[in-house]
Amino acid sequence: MKTSQRGFTLIEIMVAVAIVGILMAFAIPSYTEYVIRGRLSEAFTALGGAQPAAEQYWANNRSYAGFDAAAAFPAGTANFSYALTTATASTYTITATGSGKMAGFIYTIDQNGTHATTGSPTGWGTSASCWVDHKGGACSN
Hints:
InterPro entries: N_methyl_site, PilE-like, Pilin-like. There is one protein chain. By secondary structure, the chain is of the alpha+beta class. The protein has one domain (10-139). Helix content is 37%, strand content 21%. The protein contains 1 helix and 6 strands; from the N terminus they run αββββββ. A 4-stranded antiparallel beta sheet has the order 1-2-3-4, covered by helices on one side. Strands 5-6 form a two-stranded antiparallel ribbon. The termini are far apart. The mean pLDDT is 92.
């Protein structure tokens, strides 16, 4: 009586491993960029929320100086720290600086609502008029 063996041949396993390797070569970089873009939204949300809070602070104090001590000023996180880099009676600039895995990203907003990307890792680009959120310097905001 003839017995048949079950299982995969070495060639079949090697082909499967090669296909998985090719798929991973495309998937991992795309996923990494997706995660970075998700973390960038943290800075965009904090800076966007700080602008009306700064206007409220100015309405109460007639100056932007000292806004960084206000309760409405964005608190630092594991990904970004926030600083009031310029503050006078009539102007301000709030800067979000990336830290940890987000190191190199630097975003600003001022009293006019001007968004700027003043620093970014290699390949991302900078802009004086928007927050860069895609490689190559593309902005969606």
